[in-house]
Amino acid sequence: MSVTPVQYLLDRFQGDADALRARSAALRSGGPQPGPDADTSQRMATACDDVCAMLRALPASDDVTAMLDALDALVPLLEQRANAATKSPPLRAVYVGAATRIREVIAAEHDASDKLE
Q1: Percent of the chain as helix, strand, coil, to the nearest 5
Q2: Cα–Cα distance between 99 and 105 in angstroms, integer?
Q3: Do 107 and 63 form a contact (C-beta atoms < 8 A)?
Q4: Helix (H, G, I), strand (E, B) or coil at 13
Q5: 23-41: per-residue pLDDT in tens?
Q6: Where are the extended beta strands (E) located within the chain?
Q7: Nearest 10 degrees: Cα torsion 111, 79, 81, 59
Q8: Is this model's pTM higher than 0.85 or not?
Q9: How many whole angstroms separate alpha carbon 30 and alpha carbon 41?
Q10: Which residue, 70, 89, 65, 87, is CA-closest to 9?
């Protein structure tokens, strides 16, 4: 069984959240590293969790078209969150990145279905 677009995105953002939490913990116990500090990494992990919560809240569907429509409906919400995070570029990047990744997944799914027709 192949992975659905929603599951792919969940795996992606959960992995990002886990990596950011690990980075935060490493920074707290070790020396400085390039990139975001421990607190910023933790806030970014929380933003990834927020994206995962949005994905989990989507209605379950076996219909790929309905699933893609539901994903597409998340893009404006993610853009709103990005706009609200203007004072924190790393958090803004999480939400902008999520919207971009969703658009890419939708486009890839449409391309794949076009090739089947």
Answers
A1: 80, 0, 20
A2: 10
A3: no
A4: helix
A5: 999 999 987 788 899 999 9
A6: none
A7: -40
A8: yes
A9: 14
A10: 70
